[in-house]
Specification:
Elements lengths: L2 H7 L13 H12 L10 E6 L2 H10 L5 H4 L2 E8 L1 H9 L9 H24 L3 E5 L1 H4 L1 H7 L6 E10 L27 H14 L19 H9 L2 H17 L5
Antiparallel strand pairs: 1-2, 2-4, 3-4
Bound molecules: flavin mononucleotide (FMN).
Length: about 250
């Protein structure tokens, strides 16, 4: 499959046939991740490959019971990881100072770039995938469940499998809302209105406004939906505390 076609036609897949992946497929995916660019080529990340059902069930429970985590034949957890680098550096006379926020950030970059290489490779193999960011909200539980040493924190989880069916490609904001010519061109209230009106039109009735959340809150606009129902302040602040605690528990100086 052409790379651009794979990128343009990709959509998150959250329902899989029960069929397992072959060893060759898994190998191809993991090598696609390994070939991703990496800061200094130091590979400031690691990947936990999970196929054991009990561990998938545990991750599913930790990540707010998103059912595709336990039904996917392959689950990969990507981490910002300075554990291996620290051991290497200290064993061979170097000095370890990759324990601050900047190199935690590099770990996030490396982990996500490798993950996205795998997403595109999966498309190429006719497989489907979906990211799960909840490992970050529940970072301490993930660290414990997967037995992480110091200097390892989860970034994102990928569930991968054979799609039951191909979902439709989701609309995006117009390109001009993301790309700024030469320097940052800040938005007026009118720009914001136009940009988001286009998105809402493109959603063609999939607009979630009006949905009622678990907390009983009802949204009258997308902005209310995404910040007062789906990503409510209480749960986001809880995620902030959890993630900050996990990063400190892992030994990073933040
Ligand atoms: C960092 C990150 C975290 C995500 N977390 C979740 C998640 O927890 N559950 C889920 O169903 N989808 C998750 N997604 C998938 C997004 O919802 C999806 O990419 C977005 O709605 C756009 O749809 P598309 O991937 O089909 O283009 C996540 C995506 C990213 C990049």
């Amino acid at each position: 499959m052409d790379v651009l076609e794979a990128i343009r036609n990709r959509a998150s897949v959250r329902a899989y046939t029960g069929e397992p992946l072959t060893k060759a497929e898994i190998d191809t995916l993991l090598h696609a991740g390994l070939h991703a660019p990496s800061s200094g080529n130091l590979l400031h990340y690691s990947v936990i490959k999970v196929t054991d059902q009990t561990m998938k069930d545990t991750l599913c429970r930790i990540c707010f019971e998103q059912p595709f985590i336990k039904s996917a034949p392959l689950v990969l957890v990507f981490n910002a990881d300075q554990n291996r680098n620290r051991k290497w550096v200290e064993q061979f006379g170097g000095h370890f100072h990759f324990d601050g926020p900047a190199y935690l950030g590099k770990g996030f970059c490396d982990a996500l770039i490798a993950a996205q290489n795998i997403v595109i490779a999966a498309e190429g193999l006719g497989l489907g995938s979906v990211y799960v960011g909840s490992v970050l909200n529940r970072a301490r539980d993930v660290r414990q469940a997967l037995n992480y040493p110091r200097y390892v924190v989860p970034v994102v989880l990928l569930a991968i499998g054979r799609p039951k069916k191909r979902p439709k490609v989701s609309p995006r904001l117009p390109l001009r809302s993301i790309v700024h010519e030469e320097s940052y061109q800040d938005f007026s209230a009118e720009d914001i209105q136009n940009i988001y009106r286009e998105k809402e039109a493109a959603w063609q009735g999939q607009n979630p406004s009006g949905l009622t959340g678990r907390n009983g809150a009802r949204a009258n606009s997308d902005s209310e939906y995404f910040t007062m129902v789906r990503y409510h302040q209480t749960s986001i602040r809880e995620a902030d505390r959890e993630f900050a605690a996990a990063v400190r528990e892992a030994g990073f100086l933040v």
